[in-house]
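Title: [Solved] Fasciclin domain-containing protein 3D structure

Original question kept below for reference.
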Amino acid sequence: MNTKNTCRLLLIVSLVLTMVACGHKDILPDPIGEPVPYTPDGARSWRTIMDEPKYSFFKAAWNRSPIETRIKNSNSAYQTLFIPTNDAFTAAGWTMEKINASSEAVLDSLLAFYVVPGLYKPVTLSTPTHRSIPLNTVLRRTTVPGYSTSQPYIYKLYIGVWKDSMMVNGVPNSKWEENEPAVDGHVYALSRMVTKPTQLMIEYIRSQPRFSMLAMAIDSGNARYTGIYNSNSSNYINFLTGGSVIQRGKATLFLPTNQAFSNSGYNTKDDISARIRQSWPIAYNYNEPGTNFYKRPRVGMDSVLMPHGFALSRNTSENILFGKDLLQYPETFSGFMTKIGQSGYEEHFILETSFANQNGMLMVRDWRSPAGDWQPIVESDIECLNGVIHVVDGWLMRK
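Solution (posted by the thread starter after getting help):
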């Protein structure tokens, strides 16, 4: 059979098969059973849930505030609310009289901190991630350094797990079962109110007499980065103030008190200056052999601050680690890499701190000096606008 006849035969077969296929309209099998109707997780809206008696303080404040404008501007079909109960309001010093006497602006700021655009179910928020999950609230602020009207500072709620409780901004709060799905979101009952951060890290440090030596060390070190050494600067002031767009990250610091300085032989500004002079002049920048990472030598006092969390001063990521996170997963966060370095550029960003859970107490030491002494955290979870502070009375000095 020649090629032309073969082509004709294939065309005829194709047409026949097409006609047969078009003539069998009932070729699919009949469906089995009844179709399952879609049912949302909740039976009520979050506004209806808010009408419950245990939320009457929150609802009264809601009715007197312009919060609905924020809800509308969020452009979200779903809202997740973390609503403090009446008992939580009372414990925080709120009464119905105080609510009725408060201005709309005060109530708006109060409520907006508990409203998160989007749908966040317990199965998502309770999935182990080793650290608390940040959720953007509808509360904004334009006066934080590094932020503006077009790019405002966003207040966050950090949700984590602590045994059978939900952890909110580092503090165990209500039980996980105290929540209700809504047709248009989700509602979590809070047994205690959450305190908003009000200060920058540098403001908190300078306001605390117990950190006067630390403030002196930071200022003395920064003053040395001038002229040809300026590119080496740790930029601690920018880091602690969020003073520029590139410093919008958040960090976790383990701040040494004056007692920690004194225990290590630093009691005056001259003692700090003597430590700095040991490493003066600052060496030039160089590429580390073997890795080719870009290294910036530091003055001696800055170097010893590295395990206190200051190693992340050039990292703009959000690295919030609450005490309960560290207590549950100490090995995970010891020497935790927050950003991978790139050959020819900055080295890895590493939290140069090791952690241990010793009988329920959070202990810390220098990650690069595993033979060093463990120091207890004496105060945890001081939340600032640009990070979280933990306090140590011991010194994590690198040997």
